[in-house]
Design a protein that fits this description.
- With about 150 residues, the protein is of the alpha+beta class.
- It contains 2 helices and 7 strands.
- The strands form 2 sheets. The protein has a 4-stranded antiparallel sheet, with no helix packed on it. The protein has a 3-stranded antiparallel sheet with strand order 3-4-5, with no helix packed on it.
- It is elongated.
């Protein structure tokens, strides 16, 4: 029982930290619109970097590809969508619901040194993968000594 409470408290703490960061570092879109809307949930994400690319992996179990939107504008990559609560039969009701549902939005400011035309996304087994190639000018290269 204590373990469940501790996990819930850590999750609440993470959500509060996310909200604080969103308030102090709003996305360009929110700053433009002057809105303070909060998403209902935030998919967890990993960001990897190699010499050639940045790659984001976002966990979105139970979502369909058509429920997701990815936009890139003014150096900002925005991933948004909505996960709906599963329907129940007439004689059923939720006794406990822990899975996050509703709208989400994740925004990432990318460096200007990327190849925006080369951004690609795939969705498989509940994981959205967005690959952002770096422009060739910023990729490391070996210089031969003459």
């Amino acid at each position: 029982m204590t373990r469940l409470t501790r996990t819930r408290n850590l999750s609440s703490l993470q959500n509060e930290i996310d909200r604080v960061f969103d308030r102090f570092f709003p996305s360009a879109e929110d700053a433009q619109e002057g809105t303070s809307r909060q998403p209902v949930w935030r998919p967890r994400m990993d960001l990897l970097e190699s010499d050639e690319t940045y790659r984001l992996h976002l966990d979105m179990p139970g979502m369909r590809q058509e429920d997701l939107t990815i936009r890139y504008q003014n150096d900002e990559l925005v991933i948004s969508g909505e996960r709906e609560r599963p329907h129940t039969d007439k004689d059923e009701e939720f006794v406990r619901a822990e899975r996050s549902v509703g709208q989400f939005r994740r925004a990432f400011t990318l460096p200007r040194t990327i190849d925006a035309e080369g951004i690609r996304a795939t969705y498989e087994s509940g994981v959205l993968t967005v690959t952002v190639p770096k422009a060739e000018a910023v990729q490391p290269r070996r210089i031969e000594i003459q």
